[in-house]
Design a protein that fits this description.
The chain is mainly α and 67 residues long. The protein has 2 helices and no strands. The longest helix is centred in the C-terminal third of the chain and has 32 residues.
């Protein structure tokens, strides 16, 4: 479960970073976010929560079957 959380965090980081740094011609002053960037980050968040819920459900089912 810890590895899953780490992978989800890194996926969210990799999905959000390129959007903020896409306008590199203006230097550090040009780093900004658009509404579509936040929407993409929200989608990654929703998918992360869904993945955690599915993983927990599978873990409970596995424990239930072992008993």
């Amino acid at each position: 479960m810890q590895a899953l959380k780490k992978m989800l965090f890194l996926a969210a980081l990799m999905a959000s970073a390129p959007a903020a740094f896409a306008h590199e011609r203006g230097g550090w002053a040009s780093i900004h976010w658009h509404a579509s960037d936040f929407l993409g980050l929200a989608v990654v968040g929703v998918l992360a929560v869904a993945a955690i819920l599915v993983a927990r459900r599978q873990q409970r089912t596995k424990q239930k079957n072992e008993q």
